[in-house]
Design a protein that fits this description.
Number of strands: 2
Shape: globular
Radius of gyration: 16 Å
Distance between the termini: 27 Å
Structural class: mainly alpha
Oligomer: single chain
Number of helices: 9
Length: about 170
């Protein structure tokens, strides 16, 4: 296992925080494989372009595969990522982050941003840190270690040094 640079972590987490990707991975995790023709009905509210991009990203990152007769299904890495998304959403909900009422995707996106950015510890009930970065109260900072460790373990286990994901996505 090689060490990850902060740039690599941020780049990968930016990809992992795409709305379409989060919805695709969690939908398959919650409800099983998605037949190709059911993708539009399943991922409602996501434009066709973003839906196609989410599938391309998921394939390039090794998160999904096509199972004949079943459709698009999660790989073991995809199932592990779904568990990480769940853990991040639970952490965020427990801490009312970024707000007491918030959807699953936004909680995951904001928590991913939080674990990959330097944390600005600010007084409780403040939603934004310096320069608009997500922040949190000092009491919650230690709790973030769990989701951060899970993400780091997943990133290290799912490095693809033989492939440049950006090149695959551009193809």
């Amino acid at each position: 296992m090689t060490s990850l640079s902060q740039t690599d972590v941020r780049r990968t987490c930016t990809m992992l925080s795409a709305t379409g990707l989060i919805r695709l991975v969690t939908e398959i995790d919650d409800n099983g494989p998605i037949p190709g023709r059911a993708l539009t009905r399943t991922l409602t509210g996501i434009p066709d372009t973003q839906r196609r991009q989410a599938v391309s990203q998921a394939r390039a990152l090794g998160l999904v595969r096509h199972r004949p007769g079943a459709g698009l299904d999660l790989t073991p890495a995809g199932a592990e990522l779904a568990d990480i998304y769940d853990a991040m959403a639970r952490w965020a909900r427990h801490h009312s982050f970024p707000a007491p009422v918030c959807d699953f995707t936004s909680r995951v996106q904001r928590t991913l941003a939080l674990v990959t950015a330097p944390i600005a510890l600010v007084p409780e009930n403040t939603n934004e840190g310096s320069e608009g970065a997500p922040s949190m109260c000092a009491a919650s900072a230690g709790d973030l270690a769990g989701p951060r460790d899970l993400l780091h373990q997943w990133l290290c286990a799912n490095q693809r040094p033989d492939q440049d994901v950006d090149d695959e996505l551009a193809a």
